[in-house]
Amino acid sequence: MLFVVTEALEGLAVERWGRTLVEGAARRPDHLVIDLRHCPRIDAAAIDLLVRVHGRLIGAGGRLTLRAPGDRVRRTLALARVDQVLDVEDCPGPALADAR
After folding, report:
1. By C-alpha distance, which of 48, 68, 81 is closest to 6?
2. pLDDT at 96
3. Distance from C-alpha of 2 to C-alpha of 6, rounded to nearest angstrom
4. What is the reported pTM?
5. Please, where are the H alpha helices in the chain?
């Protein structure tokens, strides 16, 4: 399952995406990918959301991958030390490659 975030994950966007991602995790996919290449920044609420979704997926035998975050998002993840908990991957290809 693939989600492509095309805005900053902060404020009201976290609430909107939260509903979407929690619903996606509730489907119990083996692998949920969140493509962040077009997400310019994230805040603490977004990090909390990502960690919660990760926990739900792990508990159901699945996994979460954050794909292609930009430098600013990567630094934020590192400062929060969640880059060592969450699977973060670089991916130079198009965001929709796995959507087929």
Report:
1. 68
2. 52
3. 13
4. 0.88
5. 12-26, 44-59, 71-79
Ranges of the chain whose pLDDT falls below 50: 97-100
Alpha-carbon span 18 to 28, nearest angstrom: 16
| 16-34 pLDDT per residue, tens | 999 999 999 999 999 999 9
The CA-based dihedral angle spanning residues 64, 69, 74, 78, taken in that order and rounded to the nearest 10 degrees: 0
Closest by CA position to 78, among listed 49, 52, 42:
42
Residue with structure tokens 């973060």? 88
Tell me the domains of the chain and their CATH numbers: 2-94 (3.30.750.24)
Residue type, 10: E
